[in-house]
Amino acid sequence: MPLQRSRFLKLGAGASLGGVVSAVRPAAADDVQKIHVLELPTDGAKTVLYAEKAGLFRKHGIDADIVAMGSGSAIYAAVIGGSADFGAGSLWPAFEAYAHGIPLRIVAPASIYTSAHPDAFLLVRKDSPIKTATDLNGKIVGGDSPDGVSVVAVRAWLDQHGADGKSIRALELKQTEQVEALDLGRIDAVILKAPYLTIALDSGKFRVLGTPYDAFGARSLLSCWVATADFVAKNPDVVKGFVAGLSEAARYTSAHEDQTVAMVAAFSGQDPVQLAHGLRSVETDNATMAMLQGPLDVAVKYGVMQQTIDLNGILAPMFPLSRT
Length: 324
What we know:
Blueprint: H1 5-14, E1 33-39, H2 46-53, H3 56-59, E2 62-68, H4 72-81, E3 86-90, H5 91-99, E4 104-109, E5 111-114, E6 120-125, E7 140-143, H6 149-160, E8 169-172, H7 175-184, E9 189-193, H8 196-203, E10 206-210, E11 219-221, E12 223-228, H9 229-234, H10 236-255, H11 261-268, H12 272-277, E13 282-283, E14 287-288, H13 289-301, H14 311-314, E15 321-322
Parallel strand pairs: 1-2, 1-3, 7-8, 7-9, 14-15
Antiparallel strand pairs: 3-12, 4-12, 5-11, 5-13, 6-9, 6-10
């Protein structure tokens, strides 16, 4: 369902987080500013968690209070409503918010998809007669929502491989329900990421049909960090420090994933053994405009968004934009 301004504002008003307020607190004696940060309890949290644990934020004059929340929509609503300073979530809802005049700004990239090292796969049952993209025509695909990123990615991927993306039927399922639904034959295919991908592949019951996120481009941004336009304007040094800490952390955690297992497991509640041997999410310290344009083009083409947006307008001045 397309996001509406009134829905965002209503959610924001209710997302109080126990009375936490968005305004940056007065500087302490050591000039460290407290910020309130919301993140999903997934592997993608490793960058912000490491930045806080390793003192990278504090080096830039900020102290991050990081809280796990169960959905990206709740995170965005809390940021908009003033209960948090920064939040992470999917790219498309940020695009939609901006298109509806909601003053969210993308301050930094979070997780990306890269076809060179895919971390999301379209699975079918091992005994399924579905062998090619065209075999999926008219079949049922599971996803978080009918117009969610995974279902739309399947539609785009099918169209790119000579099949009919419009023909598939989407069944809305929670991520915790998707593996069981595929196993029971309620759905014919589903895109999974860790930890559910790890669980599915370890069971030996399923096989990989393809990598539909390739439809967005060889490298594409899937999630991002946001703040309100007002917060960015009033606290430029805080935003710069937050982005700088994230960037330094992303470079480190990308090269030392093994050192983030215990930290992510404690934050997300995942089994550390399963987390360690499964595919990990891919974070980046910068992004190109093309990495945002690909997902935007797909969102508009498949009706997730009714209009395109000015990508330059949605990016905060501190966004680490790469020209290469």
